[in-house]
From TrEMBL:
Family annotation (CDD domains): NAT_SF (cd04301)
Keywords noted in UniProt: Transferase
N-acetyltransferase domain sequence ranges: 1-138
GO molecular function: acyltransferase activity, transferring groups other than amino-acyl groups
Keyword set includes Transferase: yes
NCBIfam families: AAC_6p_group_E
One Pfam family recorded for the sequence: Acetyltransf_1
InterPro entries: Acyl_CoA_acyltransferase, GNAT_dom
Protein's name in the database: Aminoglycoside 6'-acetyltransferase
Record organism: Sphingomonas yabuuchiae
């Protein structure tokens, strides 16, 4: 598996995996954001994973510094999991974040997504806090 910065030729595979991760919330971006913390994992030239990251200047829960590298999304096709793809994508994002001057790398996961929690812990992340959001209509 090869991890590389995202490029226009990866667009179709990237869109398919975004839809697999986020469903309707993935939207349909016109252009694949090149560089800027966006990476794809390729196997035989086919996109089998992606990571999207951002440098956040605002407060990030559980972090002490700013800016903070934030993993916005990570997904590896189920048929290619447990082969080091997620680790390679996270390593590429971490290298990119260091080059941006970040000292901390943060992420989040739904409270009931235990597979994501396990993956984060296996990749060296530490849980910092749990939050339940509330709302009411006015």
């Amino acid at each position: 598996m090869i991890v590389t910065p995202a490029a226009p030729e990866h667009r179709e595979g990237w869109l398919a995996l975004r839809a697999a991760l986020w469903g309707d919330e993935a939207g349909n971006p016109v252009d694949l954001p090149e560089g800027d913390g966006n990476f794809v994992a390729l196997e035989e030239g086919r996109v089998v994973g992606f990571a999207e990251a951002a440098v956040r200047q605002d407060y990030v829960n559980g972090c002490d510094n700013s800016p903070v590298l934030f993993l916005e999304g990570l997904f590896v096709d189920p048929g290619h999991r447990r082969g080091g793809g997620a680790a390679a994508l996270v390593a590429a994002v971490a290298d990119w974040g260091r080059a941006q001057g970040c000292l901390e790398f943060a992420s989040d996961a739904e409270i009931d997504n235990l597979d994501s929690h396990a993956m984060h812990l296996a990749l060296g992340f530490a849980e910092t806090e749990r939050v339940v959001y509330f709302r009411r209509e006015l």
